[in-house]
Amino acid sequence: MKASLCIGENQTLPQEIFTLFEKSLMSDVTSSRLKFASIYFSAWRFEEAAAILNQVDALVSNKVICFSPCLDFLKHKFDLELLRRRKEFLHMLQNEVALSTIFSRHEINCVPGQLVAEFYRTVTVEDKACRGALNSSCMEWMGLAVVDSLPYMYYLQYLIFRTTGLISDKDIAFKNLQTVIFPEA
Q: Is residue 163 part of a domain?
């Protein structure tokens, strides 16, 4: 939240923000790192953001399980996969799980502009009433921007390379984004 306030007011980000993020990088393979890269991107520090994204790209392998806590129907597959691996849960979480990256409205200045609409999916009283019929956990997610890790990584890479003018890298990131979104195409 403090990073978002600083970015919104065009202030320099204090070192404590970077220190706290560096301590959180081992939570899982992707989510903290992608949030950190997103902060750098939003602060126009593209080299640092690109370095983090390169690190995430190197950590992601075919052994990484992508998991979004807001999609209950994937949980069954996720649980079965974890049981098959027979490893310590903390080790798997830190090295083999790619959690979705979750931003709250308080972090609105830390996301690319295209994601801001995700914070405002419930606009009217009628929207809220319709969503009230859904379970309460669904309501909690409606005020958040939740992005799957692999598409978000490639999307941030695309934005950074487009902004910095690295055309070939931009094209590679866009192709990777297409492949992860449309795997059969």
A: yes
